[in-house]
Design goal:
The structure holds 2 protein chains of 2 kinds. Chain A folds into 2 domains: 78 residues, no CATH class; 82 residues, no CATH class. In chain A, helix 2 crosses helix 3 and helix 5 packs across helix 6. Chain A is mainly alpha-helical. The longest helix of chain A is centred in the C-terminal third of the chain and has 24 residues. Chain B is mainly alpha-helical. Chain B has a domain of 115 residues. Helix content of chain B is 69%, strand content 0%. Chain B has 6 helices and no strands. Chain B is globular, with a radius of gyration of 20 Å. Classes of the chains: A mainly alpha, B mainly alpha.
Chain lengths: 163, 169
């Protein structure tokens, strides 16, 4: 499976994602959104019913899709390494607990903010913008702008006090 | 007797649709998770490289995805296509801009840039064996649960309902 071993070219990756968005809509007027699948999963775990909604299956599928990719490409190995995230001055040399804490805090911002906004990069950014929903366009403009600014500030801000 | 059998047919129809929808959810989820790994969006450095404009991959893919999805959706709706599961018209609703969109998305943007991942990739990372995704996903669950709790208490400032950008149901 050498075809999928290298990074998918952007001009293939874009239409493939669009295929998922359009396919879900055509299947049953379903809206592709990763955050929605997290929310549905949390609700189901808090109050487990006989069978969870399709979004919970989507959540499980996303994890399984990651596993499938790792198996197909023979790249499955369990690791806590996370690229240059581990080298940020804020967490470098402070062990797993520091890195885990920063990821937990960032994750909490993601969960709180995206639920408040009603979607994330997939639900608002791709699906909602493609449907020209004003709320999605405003959300996407906001999180892209903020993320770009923060990403540029990170090396400055979090490397303060670096060894 | 007749009424009962009609009721049975309807409820089995509903159950059949729900099952089909769940199967579709699982299959599209698998496709999404696979896609996230293939595009390397499960990698911290690919996301940060995109946000810092060191690599244009993220932006080119995003533009391509939005344009092709918009065309595909418009064509389906204009052609009066019906859904595979329940034969309803392909359609969607849109939401006006609310303060919650802006405040929530600003918070989300901070988390996205710091973790170098968003909800979809965090889930796919776990399957791929990138266990950092476990911490991010745990944080996401904690954050969204807290948001649900807060918005229930503060009806004065309700959030946009989840997945609300365009549920046509």
């Amino acid at each position: 499976m050498m075809v999928v071993a290298d990074q998918c070219p952007w001009y293939v990756a874009g239409p493939l994602l669009a295929l998922l968005v359009v396919g879900l809509r055509w299947t049953g007027n379903l809206h592709l959104g990763a955050l929605g699948s997290f929310v549905a999963t949390e609700r189901w775990m808090a109050r487990p019913r006989a069978l969870p909604s399709w979004r919970v299956f989507f959540f499980a599928g996303t994890i399984m899709g990651g596993l499938l990719y790792a198996l197909v490409t023979g790249t499955l190995h369990f690791t806590f390494r996370n690229g240059t995230f581990d080298q940020m001055g804020f967490v470098a040399g402070r062990g797993l607990a520091a890195r885990a804490s920063l990821l937990l805090a960032a994750g909490a911002f993601i969960g709180f903010g995206a639920r408040m906004a009603g979607g994330c990069t997939s639900g608002h950014g791709v699906c909602g913008v493609a449907q020209r929903s004003p709320g999605s366009v405003a959300s996407t403009a906001t999180f892209v702008l903020v993320a770009v600014v923060v990403a540029h500030l990170l090396p400055v801000a979090l490397k303060v006090g670096a060894p | 007797m007749k009424a009962a059998s009609v009721g049975d047919t309807i409820s089995s129809d509903v159950a059949g649709r729900a099952t089909k929808t769940r199967i579709a959810g699982l299959l599209f989820g698998i496709g999404f998770g696979f896609w996230l790994c293939w595009t390397r969006f499960t990698s911290y450095d690919v996301i940060l490289g995109g946000l810092r404009f060191e690599r244009l991959y993220l932006w080119l893919m995003f533009g391509m995805a939005v344009v092709t999805a918009a065309i595909g959706l418009q064509v389906l709706r204009a052609a009066g296509a019906r859904t595979w599961i329940d034969e309803t018209r392909v359609d969607w609703t849109t939401t006006p801009v609310r303060t919650a969109h802006l405040v929530g998305s600003a918070m989300f943007g901070v988390g996205w840039a710091v973790a170098g991942t968003c909800p979809g990739p965090a889930a796919a990372q776990i399957g791929q064996g990138h266990l950092a995704g476990l911490f991010t996903a745990a944080g996401i669950f904690a954050g969204l649960t807290f948001q649900g709790w807060v918005s229930q208490r503060r009806v004065a400032a309700p959030a946009v309902s989840p997945g609300a950008c365009a549920q046509a149901q």
